[in-house]
Amino acid sequence: MLHRVRPLNKSFCLQTLCENNYRKLVSLIPCFEQLETNGVVKTTVLAKAPFTYHLSLTFGDLDKIGQHSNIECRVYLDTQSVDVLNIAGLSSPTQAQRSTPKKLLQHKWEINYFFEKWLVFQLQRANEEPLDRQAALV
């Protein structure tokens, strides 16, 4: 799979990926304190500092055990980057923290790469919805 892509300079590529994810996230959610985005993503501010937001992005319907899918990330306004901390059901932050630095970097790469693909999907979905609504009005 593509999340198994292993760039030569992973730390530089990870930083570039996080910066690109910031631009995509701002396109999807212009105001981080806004609760609803196009009826699909709910944004919750977990913590706020002068140049940092700690966000929880909740999306989708309830799963089998009654929980929403959830992405927890930290948004850095000064460097204009987003770092994914945890994706519910996909990653285990405590397990990754106990591993070697190489495995930790690989884990960061995988969850941030997944987040990039998710953002692209959500942006495409947000752009298609107004067209669907316009077609319904005709």
Write the layout of secondary structure elements.
Blueprint (H helix, E strand, L loop, with lengths): L9 H19 L7 E2 L3 E9 L2 E8 L9 E8 L4 E7 L5 H5 L3 H37 L1
Antiparallel strand pairs: 1-2, 2-3, 3-4, 4-5
Helix pairs in contact: 1-3
Walk across the major sheet and give the strand order.
1-2-3-4-5
Helix-residue proportion: 40-55%
Strand segment count: 5
Report on the biggest sheet.
5 strands, antiparallel
What integer is the average pLDDT? 80
Count every helix, treating DSSP H or I runs of 4 or more residues as helices. 3
Shape: globular
Rounded to an integer in angstroms, the radius of gyration calculated over CA atoms is 16 Å
From the N-terminal CA to the C-terminal CA, the straight-line distance is 41 Å
User: Which residues form runs of ≥5 with pLDDT under 50?
Assistant: none
Along the chain, the helix and strand elements come as HEEEEEHH
